[in-house]
Structure formats: C-alpha cells, structure tokens
Amino acid sequence: MATLQELETKDRSNWCPGCGNFGIQAAIKQAIVNLKLEPHNVMISTGIGCGSKMNQWIETYGFAGLHGRSLPIAMGAKLANHSLTVIDVGGDGDGYGIGMGHFIHTMRRNFDMTYIVENNQVYGLTLGQTSPTSEKGMKGPSTPFGIIEDPVNPIRLALAGDCTFVARGFAGDIPHLTSILEQAINHKGFALVDVFQPCVTFNKINTYAYFRQKVYKLEESGHDVTNLEEAFKKAGESEKLPIGIFYKVDKPTYESSDVALQDGVPRANVDISNVNVAEVMESFM
Ligand code: SF4
Predict the structure, then answer these.
(1) Domains of the chain: which residue ranges?
(2) Which pTM does this prediction carry?
(3) Span from the CA of 18 to the centroid of ligand 1 (angstroms)
(4) What CATH code would you report for 21-283?
(5) What is the pLDDT of residues 112-160, one digit of tens each?
C-alpha cells in the first residue's frame, strides 16, 4: 500500500505554474493511495504532450510511448499481466486527434484499464495550436482567424463507441476528480475519464474561472448512470457543463473473453535465477 510520499519522484515536474496537470497528478496519486494499490502493481502509459510526462513524476511503473500510441502499449501491458492496474494518460490532441483510431478500438475491446484524457482544448507542448476539442472560433498560431470546425465531443464519442464507463472531471476540483478516478479504476472494463484541464499559458478561454462558473455535478442532479439516452443528452449540454459519471455498464473484458488466456497468461518456463540483470540491461544501453 503506497503513501503519497512514496509516490513522489526525486525530480519535480516542469509544467507551467498553475497548469491543470497538477490537479490531475494529485488526484491520480490520491486515488492510488485511497485504493491501497502497490506502486509496483501500477503502470502508467503515456503518449506525447505536456501531460504525457505524468509518469515521469509519479513513482509507479511507466512507459512513454509515441504520440497517440499509448493505448496499444497499455493493452499489451494488460495482456501480459492481468493483475496490473493500467492507467493511460494523454492529452486531447494525443487521444482525440492522432490517437483516435486506438481510442475507438480499445473502447470496443473493453480492456480493463483507465484512460485519463487531459482535455485542455489546445496543443500546449507545441505552443498553442488549436486541438480537436478547441471551441469553434478559437484563435491560435495555426488559425489566426479562428478555427472553423466544430469540436469533437469526447463523451458522446465514447457513449457511441460502447465505452463501459464514461466520466468527466475538472482539474480544479481534486476531491471530486479523485472520487471519479477511484470508481474508474475499480470498474472492470475500459473507463474513460475526460478531464477539463486548464492550460494557463495558451488557452485564455477555458480557464479555471470559466469552468468554476459552468460545471455542475451529475450525481447532485439525480442523473441515472445506467440510462444511455439520458447520458447522450447530458453530454450535449453546453450552457452548463456536467462533470461526474455519465454512464456505466458491466460487460466482459477482452482479457477475460480471450480463450487463449482462460488459464492465465502464458509464461515461458525459463530459469532466470542465475541471470545477471545488470548485464542484460547494460547490453541494451
Ligand atoms: Fe500546462 Fe499549458 Fe503549460 Fe503545457 S503549456 S504545462 S498544458 S499550462
């Protein structure tokens, strides 16, 4: 069982002061502690982007993949070790742009993992271009006259894609986000947690103040998380923005359905007791 101190890394993050990623990082750590997970049983997979450095600054296992390609790595990790708690973290550009294909197919396979999307509605790492979730009309270095496309609605996309746990949080409400993450990690299947994550440097529209004024909690509005039609309606709201769990349903996971894995994960019967691990590592350097 981990403590918050044990999840600290020696290095400190280099996110901009006030970045919403700090709130998400705090919520991930708190959820790991609250769920009494062992750090060596947690793997955080990431792609490329500001928030994809998340696994550099949480003391669990981690794998930094390519832009938009973190989900296949997460799937592979889950296939190789079913008892691992797999958390994938990436931005909206990473997951809803170049990684969209992986997002759709990981959802429909229903791997048991949690996918946290830091949705700041902008490409922060590359200095503020508009992203797949940028609001129509938003100006950026690549769209000086304002973006003319409608944004992706990730919640509706996930509902249509048969995602078995669909939620949205706000990086400015860490206790609420922690509670969502705990439920997402406990869910047996693919859990999407889209998070409003203010980018204080490049997105001057979707700020902490903007979200504080607009968000409300689904669980306080009597929302029924088993009602798919109602979840679609809630996902389309824009005057006020619901956060919390939109929808959840139980379905068999991919790893429990694969006949090749019914007797557990196949393991090579190789004696490695005399292997010098340091030498093996050295040979890859
Ligand atoms: Fe965070 Fe934006 Fe700074 Fe990136 S550029 S670290 S998303 S505030």
Answers:
(1) 21-283
(2) 0.94
(3) 9
(4) 3.40.50.970
(5) 999 999 999 999 999 999 999 999 999 999 999 999 999 999 999 999 9
